[in-house]
């Protein structure tokens, strides 16, 4: 499919780019997208949660009362989980939430996400641009000219441009990423996808691997 190329003023340049059908026009696989999103969210979890069990509580090991004759249950330690301040039974321990996903499934999920965005008309191609200095107002102006200032946007660039990245950082609904770092979750969570001309070739190469 061919798309018009826009400049940062939101005007058509008169040029068109051809989006590869094997990347942007595949039949979306919802299950592959689900697995990729699940993997991404799982990898965001630190897994550093920890509570102390009875063997890790600091305190005396003295038997707190005699074994028999008290009329209550026997107890041998203040660290007993049934007492206030005691250890926790089967508490959380540090663990990893990482999920293994085959590369072919990851690639299919990204293709499905990109194809879904294209079929819904939420992809725009823009000329490569940069800023002399980081300026949020300048980046916001570009989004307004492209009529994309309402929902969440994801700008995909060929290389990491620090000026563009810093200019977009203060906008809560704007995200910038390199083509090599493009993932299914970022594509799905964004309402509109903005792809720079320089990123198209990078996207083709990343799917060819």
How would you describe the overall organization of this protein?
- It contains seven helices and six strands.
- By secondary structure, it is α/β, with parallel strands linked by helices.
- It has two domains: 2-45 and 101-208, Ribosomal protein L4/L1 (Ribosomal Protein L4, Chain: A, 3-Layer(aba) Sandwich), CATH 3.40.1370; 48-96, no CATH class.
- It starts with a strand and ends with a helix.
- The mean pLDDT is 92.
Please write out the topology.
Layout: E1 2-6, E2 12-18, H1 21-24, H2 30-43, H3 103-119, E3 123-126, H4 136-145, E4 153-157, H5 162-168, E5 174-178, H6 184-189, E6 192-196, H7 197-208
Parallel strand pairs: 1-3, 3-6, 4-5, 4-6
Antiparallel strand pairs: 1-2
Helix pairs in contact: 2-3, 4-5
Order of helices and strands: EEHHHEHEHEHEH
**Secondary structure: number of strands:** 6
Radius of gyration: 27 Å
- For CATH, the homologous superfamily of the largest domain is named as Ribosomal protein L4/L1
Overall geometric form: elongated
Fraction of helical residues: 25-40%
Largest sheet: 6 strands, mixed
The average pLDDT value, as a whole number, equals 92
| Sheet with the most strands: spatial strand order | 2-1-3-6-4-5
Structural class label = alpha/beta
Termini separation comes to 22 Å
The overall number of domains is 2
Highest-level CATH class of the largest domain: Alpha Beta
Number of helices: 7
Q: Roughly what fraction of the amino acids lie in strands? A: 5-15%
What is the CATH third-level topology name of the largest domain? Answer: Ribosomal Protein L4, Chain: A
Q: Based on the structure given, which CATH architecture of the largest domain is correct? A: 3-Layer(aba) Sandwich
Low-confidence stretches: none
């Amino acid at each position: 499919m061919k798309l018009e190329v826009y400049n940062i003023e939101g005007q058509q340049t008169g040029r068109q780019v051809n989006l590869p059908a094997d990347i942007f026009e595949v039949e979306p696989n919802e299950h592959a997208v689900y697995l990729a999103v699940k993997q991404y969210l799982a990898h965001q979890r630190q897994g550093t949660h920890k509570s102390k069990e009875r063997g890790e509580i600091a305190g005396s090991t003295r038997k707190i009362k005699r074994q028999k004759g008290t009329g209550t249950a026997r107890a041998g330690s203040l660290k007993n989980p049934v007492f206030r301040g005691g250890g926790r039974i089967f508490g959380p321990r540090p663990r990893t939430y990482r999920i293994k996903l085959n590369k072919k499934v990851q690639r299919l999920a990204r293709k499905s996400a990109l194809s879904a965005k294209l079929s819904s008309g939420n992809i725009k191609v823009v000329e490569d641009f940069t800023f002399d200095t980081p300026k949020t107002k300048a980046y916001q102006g570009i989004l307004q000219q492209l009529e994309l200032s309402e929902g969440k946007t994801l700008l995909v660039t060929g290389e990491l441009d620090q000026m563009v990245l810093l200019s977009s950082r203060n906008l809560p609904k704007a995200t910038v990423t390199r083509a090599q770092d493009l993932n299914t979750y970022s594509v799905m969570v964004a309402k509109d996808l903005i792809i720079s001309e320089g990123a198209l070739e990078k996207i083709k190469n990343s799917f060819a691997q």
